Each structure stands twice: as structure tokens, then as C-alpha cells.
Amino acid sequence: MSIETLKNALPDYARDLKLNLSSLAAEASLTPQQRAGTFIAAALASRNAATSQALLAEFAPQLSPEALAAAKTAAAIMAMNNVYYRFVHLVGGDYKTLPAKLRMNAMARPGVEKADFELWSLAVSAVNGCGLCLEAHEHELRQAGLSAEQVQAAVRIAATVHAIAVTLDGERAILNDAVAIAA
After folding, report:
1. Which residue in the list 30, 130, 151, 154 is annotated as catalytic?
2. What is the pLDDT of residue 174?
């Protein structure tokens, strides 16, 4: 499946998503590695098979094996961290002072530049809605010298990829319901 196939799978009412996908696939404020890794991490975080397959087919060839593994690692580790730190952030209290006691070694040595891994972690955190993680990753990215436009570009990619996944899931649910009703 290609990015064109993914766009063609979207219904007419999602035209803006198609246009956003096209423009973001050529987003010039990010390096090719940053852009490709952001698409892959966001797709995996969005949990839609068609979206993940299409964006992996499109962007994985643009990454070294190490960068591809790092983008996948960002999606995996942030899936855990976003749940835990969203809990800490929302509940507050003593939990902020307790050690997480969760292994996160991959964050220390992700196999790519730290800023790229942070960018991918930010995109996944945007999909998963963890405010504490968003704040932490945005701070690290700005400290690393990324501009507001670059940070925003990663979140725009995450938002668009997630919207595509949600739309495809919704359409599949409608189709499944129609088939079940007809049976």
C-alpha cells in the first residue's frame, strides 16, 4: 500500500486530510529523517493497520535501519510513558515524587540524534494526549535548537496521521455494521 492508495481509501468528506497528507509529506522545515520518522511513529501510535502499512511503505525506505528502529521504539516506549505520565500529571499528589520504575533505556541511546528521537516522541505524545510528555519533549526540542515551526510541523503530521486512522476506523465500523445488519 502506498501513500496514494491511503489517500484514495479516504472518503470524499476527508478531502482536507488528503490535502494535508500531501503537503506534509513534503514538509520542508524538517529533515527527511525527521519527517519520515515522525510519519512512522505517529502511524504506529494511531493503531490503524492500513495507515501504518501505507506510511511504512512510503517512509521506511527513506530511513536507515537504525532510524527506522528508533522511530518504532519511540512509538513503543511512548505508548507506555504516555499512559504513566498522563496518570501522574492528572492525579498529582505523591506520584510526582515516586520513581517511575519503568525501563526506558532506549530513550538514553535511541540510535539516532537525540533531537530526532525527541521529535518522534513528541508526535506520539500528541497522538496519545499526554500533556506532561508534550511539555517535556517540546522543551527538549527547543533546547536542542529546533524552531517552533519544526515542532509544530511534527504535531501537524501527528494530527493528520491520527485523523486519517480515525476516519478509516470509522468507515470500517460503518461497513461492518451494515454487513451485520444485512445478515
Report:
1. 130
2. 74
Percentage of the chain modeled with pLDDT above 70: 95
Residue 73 near residue 45 (C-beta atoms within 8 A)? no
CATH of domain 3-103+115-182: 1.20.1290.10
Above 60 in pLDDT, residue 177? no
Q: Is 176 a catalytic residue?
A: no
The answer to whether residue 133 is catalytic is: yes
Determine which one of 78, 132, 133, 164 is catalytic: 133
Tell me, yes or no, if the pTM score tops 0.70.
yes
